[in-house]
Write a structure and sequence with these properties.
heterotrimer, A mainly alpha, B alpha/beta, C alpha/beta, A: mainly alpha, 11 helices, 77% helix, C: alpha/beta, D-Maltodextrin-Binding Protein, domain 2, 2 domains, 21% strand
Chain lengths: 221, 276, 252
Amino acid sequence: MAEVIWLTVKLAGVTTILLLILATPLAWWLARSRAWWKEVVGAVVALPIVLPPTVLGFYLLLALGPDSPLMRPLQAFGVRTLAFTFEGLVIGSIIYSLPFAVQPIRNAFQAIGDRPFEVAATLRASPLDAFFSVALPLARPGFLVATILTFAHTIGEFGVVLMIGGGIPGETEVLSIEIYRLVEALEWDRAHQLAGLLLVFAFAVMLSLLLIERRTGRLRP
Amino acid sequence: MNSEAGMIEGTFQGRLGEFTLDAQICVPATGVTVLFGPSGCGKTTLLRCVAGLERLRGRLVVDGAVWQDSGRFMPAHQRPVGFVFQEASLLPHLSVRRNLLFGFLRTEGAKPISLDQVVSLLGLEPLLERGVERLSGGERQRVAIGRALMSQPRLLLMDEPLASLDQARRGEVLPYLERLPAELSIPILYVTHDWGEAQRLGDRRIPMAAGHTAEAAPIDKGSGETDLSARMARLGPEGLLAELQESGIPHDVGRLTLAALQSGLDPWDPRAQSEK
Amino acid sequence: MTARRALLAGIFASLALPRSPAVARAAEVRLAVAANFTEPARVIAARFEAATGHRAVLSHGASGQFVAQIANGAPFDVFLSADASRPIQTEAAGLSAPGTRFTYATGRLVLWSRTLNLVDPRGRVLSAGRFEKLAIADPKTAPYGSAAIETLRRLGLEARLAPRLVRGASITQAYQFTETGAAELGFVALSQVINHRRGSRWTVPASLHSPIAQQALLLKRGADNPAARAFITFLKGPEAQAVIRRYGYEAS
């Protein structure tokens, strides 16, 4: 049981960190670009919200399977498939939670507006410098929201893991799958306990989210 | 192609949305040059072109250095300008001190303008450790000026810095502005639609209307007179009318004012109404 | 406006049309069917409707979920489970008409791979062991999964192959893993691969595991439903049994 919980937390943690790194430049581009096709990209990013997780998981099963052209470079290193691996789950979770990371960060970048960057430019800051010294600090609330949402969303992830997990202890056996199995096996008491745990966690997450928003709202001039 | 050292020479042409700019500047790189005209005439756009915040077709040479021509465009962050925006726009995540130091820390080479100098010049001592959201409008603007100065600019650009302040705050900041040219030998391009400011601060003016600039002309500082009848006595009726029109006063208002003066009445100065 | 009136009139008129006597007496039976039995159930239901004039409404899903729903008042008349243990539990909970539990089909386990020549007809590939992943259904929740484990145990290979097992949440998933090649081979249901020409297989001798008895029962709600009772009778009859056999199950 402890192993299941630890694996779940580990998956959520690794996914969150990697996703923040991935989502930031993407959110920056979406916030600042004037390309006419940027909303097309925005819609693609938002797709995982709409797609049923099992559908997403099914396509991932194909994409991470031995037939997939995406796997060919890895096959040179003797990796046949990324299904049933922790790494495969991380990839699936990143795609599944992508919009939950990109949207808050994008909104935060957009809320900054143009003026602070003009100010920074007239004060000798190059665009890269301005990104780190102005954009990131001012977008901090957005990053906080993205972190919490991604983490919580991945903790509860079920459909994607169901499709590509394979229930391997220590690798892909996470909390949500375990609850499902317990219900299937008619072990309702254990299922209640775990579900209760998940519920308490989700509540704590949402509460902290609301408190943070209140706090940062007050700090705004 | 060789410009004289000590001049600011620029031309800009182009469209920004609905607006067309066709402007020239040719003024010495000393003292205060006022870009003067009514709202919407393009003076802010011109200033932003000089700063590199807008990119229009053109050429800009400042004190012998080419900042822009047909082959090259120096981006804003490489131009040694200081820019004071109309709304101060202090960086909200930094304290006053860190705002002031922002440009200072990013300049190389000699830094003759120091924090102490700027603090004493603008009376910023009590504000240094405050967060920016607790400053009044006038305090913010002084910090913005100080911040621009501390980036060691070769040219200071100010976009209607007093326009968003009320009467009292304006009176608070104006004296600091008046001291700048004397204390630091940095040329200033100052945008305003207020003739009172222009007269108090400027050495010369470039009138602007509807995206076009006119020939630069000196500002008569000597008289300091705001009395209309005295002005008419000095310039003559046509001179006063021209001066009124240059300030953006509509033609018929100018004529009415003139007629009132000539009838012995004591009309208010229509330019005094242009304060926001 | 007149078009709408005409449409409404037409609908009312068709409702008032006299029905054939059989339809007038028709009842409806609601079936909860284990996912792996979906296809044969559809065929049987169609034949049933044609033969009796009753209507059959099918829901497919995981057997455990059905038990939870039935225990909470879901409107099913007949439950076709993937195993025997769940009907036993349903019966013990007093949710069914007494004495109506029976085996409607017996599943056969097959070791299958989509790759030709990987699985030999004797299943020796398991001990020769040149593969990374072997898919099975979750033994905790699916009878095909526990049958697979039993088979491995009987062959003395359980401990050795345990690290290579991937568990699908259902037999359908075990099949998906195997079909896509994510697992090179897997223990699937014969009914899933009965029509496949490609691939390689070993039909596991029934002696190597407990019978995969799929049981059905008449639920309390259907006890007085003539269509429900008729369906049970039909399911035990020769026509349904032929369909069941054709889909790779052993008839009871």
